Amino acid sequence: MQIKNCFLILLIACFATIATAQPRESVEGVHYQVLARQIPTETPEDVIETRELFWYGCPECFTLEPLMTDWRDGVRGDLKMIRTPAIWNDLMAMHARIYYTGIAIDAEDRIHRAAFRAIHEENNPLRTEVQIREFFLANGVDSETFNTAWNSDEVSSSVQQAQLRSSDYGVDKLPSVILNGRYIVTHNEKVFDHIEFNIAINLVVRRLRDERRSDF
Predict the structure, then answer these.
(1) Residues 204 and 212 sit within 8 Å (Cβ to Cβ)
(2) What is the DSSP string of 62-108?
(3) Among 90, 139, 189, 206, which is most exposed with the fewest C-beta within 10 angstroms?
């Protein structure tokens, strides 16, 4: 575990450093794709929405999580990162409910990290409501608080919205990042690791900023 933590620390440092030095161009259809249609964003017009789509059962999403959280915490000004659980089956909808329940009880980051660890390190698949309730209790949430949030209209509505967004984006591979409802970055032959993923995201951000400047 200590070796793994050291690796993640080094990767996060490299992730942040490379984001400031990107000498090449990003090629449409290679490093990023254009969505079939533009999807409305939740951010103001002068803010670039960077939306991470994830699933707790996805191994690459698990290893990417510390890096995306670090990226989110470091963005300023005209950028905003939003997490959205991807949903295209019942298990993913169940896991999305975990995420939004974490938000409802004001423990988003703590539950988010713990859910990834439960599945990928503790061999707990979180496939049933019983397993999930026990997971929340093990993470310091009392049964009444869990039940109220888990069954709330707020959480149900958020899960429905996430399902609609997954359909609108046409995502079938994770992790993916949607930029301003127009572009999508996913791992492929050219975007083959987390560092290249970060570079591709930042180059699309640069393109969006350049487009904005050219409008004036």
Answers:
(1) no
(2) HHHHHHHHHHHHH--TTEEEEEEE--SSHHHHHHHHHHHHHHHTT-H
(3) 189
Tokens of residue 99, six digits: 């995420």
> What pLDDT, in 10s, does the model give residues 96-132?
999 999 999 999 999 999 999 999 999 999 999 999 9
**17-214 has which CATH code?**
3.40.30.10
Q: What is the largest CA-CA distance in the chain?
A: 56
Identify which of 148, 150, 103, 109 has the alpha carbon closest to the alpha carbon of residue 126: 150
Burial class for 103, CB neighbours closer than 10 Å (0-12, 13-18, 19+): middle
Tokens of 125: 């698949």
| CA–CA dist 215, 37 (Å, integer) | 21
pTM recorded for the entire structure: 0.88
